[in-house]
TrEMBL record:
The gene is mhpB. It comes from Nocardioides albus. This is 2,3-dihydroxyphenylpropionate/2,3-dihydroxicinnamic acid 1,2-dioxygenase. It is an enzyme of class 1 (oxidoreductase). Homotetramer. Its cofactor is Fe(2+).
Length: 314
């Protein structure tokens, strides 16, 4: 059984804050390369590991991981709104398989998902319901964070299930990262209105959504101009992580420490958990080989921006 993988940074600022034309062309080329890889592989099932940015998951009930049995895009930053095409029966079997492997995972029969999960689907498939997709939420912004070994084990358990689906061509996606520290409020330092949003900010008014998004867009502009106060990107950290993921030996991931990750690469660097889960899933089907890799720190997007493709080695 073979699996394929695409991991990619996302940024809500794509299309809002464009970098210099040659950088934009590079990113477009990276997306085109990932798209070509996916279209050649022609997946029949996608498992998408993605974080959320307080659009679908809130502090009224914040799981570290959640498998979606049904899902809806919320439509933030102009991304698609409405239902995904989730194969519910397969998602249920996946959650049972994971539970039997001694891992604790939440499930949702109505998962609401934001640009973190939607953007790769739109970039790779041109829509959110073209290929059956099981969304797996991996918390990448809300403390507390599990140890990284749990992320690896979850990915491996999911991959071992996917490897049993011999009639499917499964693509795993990891969305987010790499190093970045966007202005997502932290509970400890949030104002009262921010805390209300973090606690239960579902279905904001259009005006509230616009105000929040405008703040992120403006921070991206300031960051590119050198006047933002957010933590800088960490290209060495990003490249080192990509090298570990490409090596096929994920064991060094277990030693990554959540506090240190945020300190070195920014609070939202925890989104790399989606990459780790995706690579761990791929590894469960046997040795793999990375085909394509792109990286550049892009301040306009507030992201150490990476794209990788990989596939079970033959
Ligand atoms: O809070 C938000 O609305 C999005 C923040 C954000 C900005 C740039 C890259 C990201 O990955 C990200 O999560
Ligand atoms: Fe993000």
């Amino acid at each position: 059984m073979s699996l394929a993988l695409v991991t990619m940074s996302h940024s809500p600022l794509l299309g809002y804050n464009d970098p210099a034309p040659e950088v934009k062309a590079e990113v477009d080329n990276a997306f085109a390369s990932a798209r070509a890889f996916v279209s050649e592989y022609d997946p029949t099932l996608v498992v998408s590991f993605a974080p959320d940015h307080y659009n679908g998951f809130f502090y009224d009930l914040m799981p570290p991981f959640c498998i979606g049995y049904e899902a809806l895009g919320v439509g933030d930053y102009g991304t698609a709104e409405g239902p995904l095409n989730v194969p519910t029966g397969t998602a249920e079997k996946l959650a049972e398989w994971v539970a039997e492997r001694d891992l604790d995972v939440a499930i949702s029969r109505k998962m609401e998902i934001d640009h973190g999960a939607i953007q790769p689907l739109e970039i790779l498939f041109g829509g959110i319901d073209t290929v059956p997709t099981i969304p797996v939420f991996v918390n990448g912004v809300a403390k507390p964070f599990t140890r990284m070994v749990r992320v690896r084990r979850l990915g491996e358990a999911i991959g071992s299930f996917l490897a049993t689906l011999t009639d499917e061509r499964v693509l795993v996606i990891g969305s987010g990262g790499l190093s970045h520290d966007p202005p997502v409020p932290q509970w400890a330092t949030a104002t009262e209105p921010q805390r209300a949003l973090l606690l239960n900010g579902r279905h904001p008014t259009a005006a509230a959504r616009d105000a929040r998004q405008e703040r992120v867009i403006q921070t991206g502009r300031d960051f590119a101009a050198g006047t933002a106060t957010i933590q800088d990107l960490a290209p060495e950290w990003d490249r080192a992580l990509m090298a570990v993921l490409a090596s096929g030996d994920l064991s060094p991931i277990d030693a990554m420490n959540p506090t240190q990750m945020a300190h070195e690469a920014g609070n939202s660097a925890h989104e790399v958990r989606t990459w780790v889960a995706a690579f761990a899933a791929l590894s469960a089907a046997g040795p793999y080989r990375v085909g394509y890799a792109y990286y550049r720190p892009i301040r306009e997007y507030i992201a150490g921006f990476g794209v990788m493709t990989a596939q079970t080695a033959r």
